[in-house]
Design goal:
With 292 residues, the protein is mainly beta. It has a single domain, classed as Outer membrane phospholipase (ompla), Chain C (Beta Barrel), CATH 2.40.230. It has 2 helices and 17 strands. The protein has a 17-stranded antiparallel sheet that branches. The longest helix has 17 residues, at 5-21. The protein is globular and about 60 Å long. The relative contact order is 0.16.
């Protein structure tokens, strides 16, 4: 019996997630396992068709905190992300991309209105076909949050990623609870509206971003095709619009699902001026989060 590739990836993700959830953890720990599928999408190189690509992605994250002083906490954890690209033929899209990283940071409360956060995520980001030093990266983020009121919070930040086309990006975010069960959020990688349908169920409509910046050691195309894309960097991004639902199964576990459309898909080898742009495609995501 032939099992669809996406189901194999999903089953593997759930198996690893179950193993992680069985490990002993401390209070304030959070473990998340998530699977996402993007349907086959035609890509274009300028005005030339570049084939079709589908994406199966899996994510595993563990986060924890430890108090350092009365107003300061240490944040730490581990992350793994894997992208499996199903390609229609020879094309400049890697078969796989991965991120394996350590998350380190600190949160400091200056006063009741201001909260400061700094983090660094050293690890390997790429197709992992070259030397580990080539794929090593350490993105950093600085964030200041101002609690204007109990209903309104503003965030001001800076993100630096040496592998990205734009290595330094400033950003502004907001979280506004404009009605008893409603909130509006602008942030990264999510922006949109949320509604608390019940104490256990939350619904959402918004925009999310999937992807990242990676080192590509080997051009995924046959050697006869040029110009070559070996030893360079790739910005892979999907901008998505969809409906989401999060249901709290019990005091520990919650299930989240999301479905909608990818409105923009891009594979950008920015150093080589080589960009593949995708059309609109459907996507869905399912995830399980455990808080202990």
């Amino acid at each position: 019996m032939n099992i669809p590739r996406c189901l194999c990836r999903f089953s593997s993700t759930l198996f690893v997630a179950a193993a992680i959830l069985a490990l002993p953890v401390h209070a304030d720990d959070e473990i998340t396992a998530r699977y996402s599928h993007t349907a086959d999408n035609p890509l274009m190189l300028a005005s030339t068709p570049g084939g079709e690509v589908g994406v199966n992605a899996a994510f595993l994250n563990w986060r924890s905190t430890a108090a350092l002083t009365g107003g300061t906490k240490l944040n730490y954890g581990l992350s793994w992300s894997g992208y499996d690209f199903s390609r229609s033929g020879p094309m400049a899209v890697p078969e796989k991309l991965q991120e394996i990283s350590l998350a380190l940071g600190a949160t400091h409360r200056l006063n009741p209105q201001w909260l400061l956060i700094a983090s660094v995520q050293p690890g390997l980001y790429g197709d992992l076909e070259g030397g580990s030093h080539e794929a090593f990266n350490a993105p950093v983020m600085f964030l200041a949050t101002w609690l204007q009121s109990r209903e309104l919070a503003w965030s001001f930040g800076l993100r630096a990623d040496p592998f990205a086309d734009k290595p330094v990006l400033p950003f502004v975010g907001v979280n506004w609870r404009f009605a008893p069960k409603w909130e509006f959020t602008i942030g990264f990688p999510r922006a949109g509206f949320g509604y608390e349908a019940s104490p256990a169920l939350k619904l959402g409509l918004g925009l999310t971003v999937q992807g990242g910046s990676f080192h590509v050691a080997n051009d995924p195309r046959p050697v006869s095709i040029g110009p070559r894309l070996d030893d360079t960097y790739l910005d892979y991004r999907e901008i998505r619009v969809g409906l989401s639902a999060s249901y709290k199964l019990n005091d520990t576990l919650s299930l989240a699902i999301e479905a909608g459309a990818v409105t923009d898909q891009k594979f950008d080898y920015y150093e080589r001026d080589y960009t593949l742009n995708g059309d609109t495609a459907a996507f869905f995501t399912i995830g399980l989060t455990g808080s202990f």
